[in-house]
Amino acid sequence: MVVADDAYLNRPTRAEISIPRLLHNFAIVKELVGKNVKIMPMVKANAYGHGIVRISKELIATGAHSLGVAYLEEALFLRAHGISAPIAVLGAINTEQIPEFIAHDIEITSSSIDKSRAISTCAVAVGKTAKVHLKIDTGMERIGVHWYNAERFICESAEMPGIKIIGIFSHFAKAETDPHFTNEQIRRFEHALAFATKHGIFPPYIHIANSAGIINFPHSHFTMVRPGIMLYGYDPRAKDARTPLAGKHLLPVMSLKTKVSFFKVVPAGCGISYNHTYITKQQTRIVTLPIGYGDGYPRSLSNKAEVLIRGKRYPVVGTICMDQTMIDIGPNGTAYNGDDVLLFGEMDSKKIPLEELCEKAHTITYEILTHISSRVPRIYTNTL
Predict the structure, then answer these.
(1) Looking at the chain, which terminus has fewer C-beta neighbours within 10 angstroms, N or C?
(2) Domains in the chain, please, with CATH?
(3) Which residue, among 289, 287, 290, 288, has the nearest Cα to 334 in the 3D structure?
């Protein structure tokens, strides 16, 4: 589990997490889905890098019904930190782990009849009932039974001793970009759900909608939704299609910051960092920051990104190192050791959007957020 050790709490490099912004984004989800739809926030991958324990506690306290994770280990970590709310592991399970699911009251995904049989056998052996979500594959081709073969899967699973079917779910493949295929996935999912209804099987939690589904496809909300990236402040829609949601805008929750650790004047013609991928064109001032790709600041941003120091943007120069990054503040730039530096997010009402870095690094917000490493402390604030 990726959680910053207390030894790192005084590091100048830190990820500042705004709890009011998190709750603001959750309120938007609630408004979009209405009061009759349950919300299962996705807190896998250390809550998308934001800190799984604190984020989970805040979301449950503000009205989330349950929590969604990818692996049993994430669920066990939450249980070990006092979280008793329902937790569903939505990834494929290893059958040898089933006893741990049952012992800790963690909801299990069954993605095949064989998995259901293994769950049933274990539950009967320990004299308990396993809570199970059945995974239907409607077009992701990852895990789950194909929608057109779902009838036998649903019926046989429901008849197995020791199993309580509490959910049926699927996953969108292209809800951000392809409405035609997404609507086809919804149609396929409804076809599978009809099998359950036909046989008198009515699980309380029917879910397929991720963040893009919540926003773009209201008819996909069913009885539960699984918001992920939108809770952390990022709209999955294309930039030119974004409009306010429930009259509001999503607010990025994390700002990645550090402090200037070194300052020097460098002559013209000097190479900076490994392999001298940047050569100074004139005498200039170079500052060093105590952050690098070992902290999750991507090496692919070398000679591409900008940072904010004393209200001004300056370029990242040279190859980003594992632990340090250099900035060229120009021949007349001003910076002092200990000055705050913004790498992405917001500081003093000025911004460097994470999406801007993603375009330069040719990646997505999810990847940068989840790569912020365990040696970067998460500092929780009450600042909106």
Answers:
(1) C
(2) 19-241 (3.20.20.10), 254-352 (2.40.37.10)
(3) 287
Judge whether 269 and 280 are in contact, CB under 8 Å.
Answer: yes
Specify the DSSP class assigned to residue 128: -
* Active-site hit among 198, 264, 274, 336: 274
Low-confidence ranges of the chain (pLDDT < 70): 1-5
Residues counted in the chain: 384
Token pair 């690098």 in the structure block, residue: 292
Question: Which amino acid, residue 321?
Answer: C
Query: What is the C-alpha to C-alpha distance for residues 52 and 69, in angstroms, rounded to an integer?
Result: 10
44 assigned to active site: yes
274 is catalytic: yes
Tokens of 151: 């009838």
DSSP state of 299: G
Catalytic residue of the set 44, 115, 131, 259: 44
Q: What is the per-residue pLDDT across 301-320, written as a single tens digit (0 to 9) for each?
A: 999 999 999 999 999 999 99
DSSP assignment of 329-343: EETT----TT-EEEE
Cα separation, 96 vs 102, in Å, equals: 12
pLDDT at 3: 45
Indicate the SS3 state at residue 72: helix
CB-CB contact of 193 with 148 (8 Å):
no
Max CA separation in the chain (angstroms): 79
Strand partners, 288: 262, 326
**What whole-number distance in Å separates Cα of residue 342 and Cα of residue 345?**
7
229-270 tens-digit pLDDT: 999 999 998 787 788 998 999 999 999 999 999 999 999 999
Q: Which of 228, 178, 244, 191 is nearest to 40 (CA)?
A: 228
